[in-house]
Amino acid sequence: MLKSLSTALDVLTKFTPRNPDWGLRELAKEMEMNHTVLYRILKTFEDKGFLIQDELTKKYELGSKIYDLLAVVQSKVNLSDLVVPLMKELSEVIEETVFLTWKDGYHGKTVEISESTQQIKFAVSIGYKTPLYVGASTKVMMAFLDEKEQLAIIKKGTEKFTDHTLVTEKEILSDLRKIKQAGWCYSEGEFAEDVFGIGVPIFGNGGKIVASLTVAGPVYRIYEEKKKECLKKIVG
């Protein structure tokens, strides 16, 4: 039992910034393991949420459960102290909600929030998931995926959350190209009525998109100069 546990943990340690995803065969070769044994381990981790398998490439990468564990570690060693104060300062200056979103498979998952002090504000909960094709916080991540991945996400099905939600392949791909070219995303009323969002991408090692930072609030408080100010502050 202990040997099996040790082997399973060894599998997880192979997922590093340098090698964030693995196919079954290449990982089996790397670890000199039997394919069947390794598949059972990977499948167990996937069922429990510690790994996810990309439907297009069939490669495995870390899943949301890892980030749940990371949140526990952060609370112990105060890693969040490096991020949250900056978000808090930004939300105070802009007077809108600022939140950090991790890419989690075909969704974005909210992991940190600094709420606006205004009485009327955009509210989001930690752990909340949003499809990648809708809203600034997630579309700005989807825009930096390759087109095959984008198409795979769209083909899984799209839902019209509001009248402003883009749902067809043509309009989504066209929008993503514009976002990638601009380097940031602005959305208005796409996921929730009367809410704006300004999202910028965050890249990991090797230039892979891993997260986004977003400013959001009620539409009536956004205007062109404030939009420019928010973008300048969030990028800077």
Automatic annotation (TrEMBL):
Residues 2-64 form the HTH iclR-type domain. Pfam families: HTH_IclR (PF09339), IclR_C (PF01614). SUPFAM superfamilies: GAF domain-like, Winged helix' DNA-binding domain. Keywords: DNA-binding, Transcription, Transcription regulation. Residues 65-236 form the IclR-ED domain. This is IclR family transcriptional regulator. It comes from Tigheibacillus halophilus.
